[in-house]
């Protein structure tokens, strides 16, 4: 493939959520002139969140989109270029790495930081997206405090759902666990803890058919799979905990991943199995999935990339007219 006309950067960051923009701030301050490709969901999951109260530094909380705008403004202040578009394919077989933007534009990068995040799986109901952030949530840790002494429901039967249900009992008057089967998939120890909680009630063999409410969640329409009976459950909030899907499909075949598609990194670092490619945020974190932890790994990825580039004698070269020399240095 002829790459002569490709745009060449020292650092390209894929994703503009908490991890990607933090990596941008750090690499920009290191004079690496990073290019951030925003992707299909600029701002990440926080861009679809209303009030954020668990991110340090904002005593009275802050709206998710507003917080992400602060991130962008700070990154741009230090020289980050933020570009709309989506990386549709990559070639990590040689350096500089080759990326395709929107299936047509060719980009080259000496280092790549992946911050594509993970997307929560939803039920696909008509009113689900409309009420997201208005009673529908995929993050109990983030939003439980908004439902003090109210009744809520959570959908799912795995470890995440049961952990979230137990967590919700700290705030909520009642927690209904709705599961489509008769038994849970969660670990036995978590099941025992949940069954011991008086605030938790289990609704078995049941599907959520619809979410009710105009401005905010007011209830659910449920259907029992065995009896086919439908009925309404009045609640103030619905938490969906049926899993996350890491946005890593385009890296399959290039990077080591676990069985769910999360990118594996070397312990204590953001290094992937491909030297010069670093992974951060929810694309490699299937445990915590918080803005604060994404920021931490974004910082780590930037420092790892900067130090690696320095070891390759790349850091001192930062101006556009030097890109040709950069490419030659890899030969």
Question: Could you explain how this protein is built, in words?
Answer:
- With 331 residues, this protein is an alpha/beta fold.
- The protein is 23% helix and 26% strand.
- The protein is built from seven helices and 19 strands.
- The chain has helices at residues 18-29, 64-77, 140-143, 159-168, 188-195, 291-311, 323-329, and strands at 7-14, 35-37, 51-52, 62-63, 81-83, 87-91, 97-101, 105-114, 118-120, 136-137, 151-155, 174-178, 200-203, 206-212, 219-224, 230-234, 237-240, 244-246, 277-279.
- Strands 1, 2, 5, 6, 7, 8 and 19 form a seven-stranded mixed sheet that branches. It has a five-stranded parallel sheet with strand order 10-17-11-12-13, with helices on one face.
- Helix 1 runs parallel beside helix 2 (64-77) and helix 1 packs parallel to helix 6.
- The two termini are 16 Å apart.
- Mean pLDDT is 91; it is low at 316-331.
Keywords:
about 325 residues, alpha/beta, 7-stranded mixed beta sheet, 5-stranded parallel beta sheet
Brief sketch in words of this structure:
The protein has 331 residues and is α/β, with parallel strands linked by helices.
How is the topology of this model organized?
Blueprint: E1 7-14, H1 18-29, E2 35-37, E3 51-52, E4 62-63, H2 64-77, E5 81-83, E6 87-91, E7 97-101, E8 105-114, E9 118-120, E10 136-137, H3 140-143, E11 151-155, H4 159-168, E12 174-178, H5 188-195, E13 200-203, E14 206-212, E15 219-224, E16 230-234, E17 237-240, E18 244-246, E19 277-279, H6 291-311, H7 323-329
Parallel strand pairs: 1-2, 1-8, 2-5, 8-19, 10-17, 11-12, 11-17, 12-13
Antiparallel strand pairs: 3-4, 6-7, 7-8, 9-18, 14-15, 15-16
